[in-house]
# Entry
Amino acid sequence: MFNKLTELVKVLCSKPHDTSTEEGRSKERVRRIAQSGAMGMIAKIIQVLSGLVTVPLTLPYLGVEQFGLWMALTGFVAFLVFSDFGLSIGLKSTLARCFGTDDKNQARNYISTAFMLLMGIALLLVILAFGVFANLELHSFIKLNNPENQQQLRDTAVMLLLVFAFGMPSAVIHSTLEAYQCGAVANTALAIGRLMSLVSIFFSVYVELPLSVMASLYMGLPLLSMYFCGVWLFTKNTWMRPKISCYDHGCAKEIFSIGKLAVSAQLGASIMSTGPLIVFSSVFGAAAIAPYVITKRMFDAVTMLLSVLLSPLWPAYGEALARKNYSWILQTFKKSLVLSMLVFVPIFIFLSLFGQDIIYLWTRDNQVIPSWPLLMMCNIWIFLLLIVRVLSVFLNGLNQFKGQAMYGFILPSLALLLGLFFSESLGMTLSILLMIFVGEFIRILFMSVEVKGIMTQFKNKTASEQTEHNKDKKNSEQVKF
# Structure
């Protein structure tokens, strides 16, 4: 273990490698993945600690119902990430290919096209916020026990939608940095932004700001930090700067063609992540879902860390595919699966045994402590998500979105419908079991079949290339002789 840690430190501290050779590119790829993962881990630890601190601060300040309201609206806003129609995902995939082929001109066209399109979508969201949400009776969708919270519900929903619209174009900055394997820079910006968010919670409670303002600051400050990062990016790399003249209809079609499949798969994942929260808040009420919300947040801290560690692999797989480095892709995928299990399975066991005690020490509120069956259902759910994340990053990096767009959307949607129809009769715990079986376990079976087929294909190509290489080497030796 000590040797592994020493090796990791050497990789993190190493200087950039010579990318003119295949070996140098592989080493540089690993170096950037390690640095991006390390900074991403720091950013997520800050986010997790922020969540740990904000719960005991905001729960007594807001009350159980307003706290549940905040979480429900946050879940709704998470769905809005798909309002970009997959542009950010499509941009990341196309730019990773451009990075692999060293095509700067086409990359600039992709960046400019995506930026202009996202600006247009952001404008539409602003119109939606003022024209629709400001006049919508939202308490018809989220059950509230206290009528005084109806205005808070409307104000918070409008503010969060405006903040989301403000941050929409920043996805270009994040996607560009990730595609060019500069995730360490993006994660540094996020870490700074999340520290600012944490400070904003203390400030909001101290000056007694309303929920709408507190939630907006908490969500918006990391976006502001990403825009400052964009200033650095486009100042250092002037050829990347978005220009209206570089908008290309062909690039838009290509980004959308990838994005529409990716967004379907990602929408399915978001349905499974936030859909139950919306269903339970509608059926059981905002106050009743607090134990589920707190438990899910505790386990989500683990999956967030896993996602950060795995996310740099997405563009790295894409760049390696463009260079036809199949052996590196296969070896890296196997390592990612084994390491994920070795690191996170013990954590899940620990949280299963001591999760209730941790939640009590965290909140000091008996009302939000989950039952043991609810704790275990969430634990099983997160373990299945671990497997899904490893498989999905592999498939996403290789632009294999078609299968995920089908089963990755249909199964979670079916799971959510089943939860909606049966949650009142089954109760919250059994409803979670039903939804994760349909939406996660069956999805893993489909993904495993797809991954196995790709690995077999890559193994055959690697073997064929090795055979051709041996033939060429033998022929050259015969000629020399």
Notes: The chain has 16 helices and no strands. The chain has a mean pLDDT of 81.
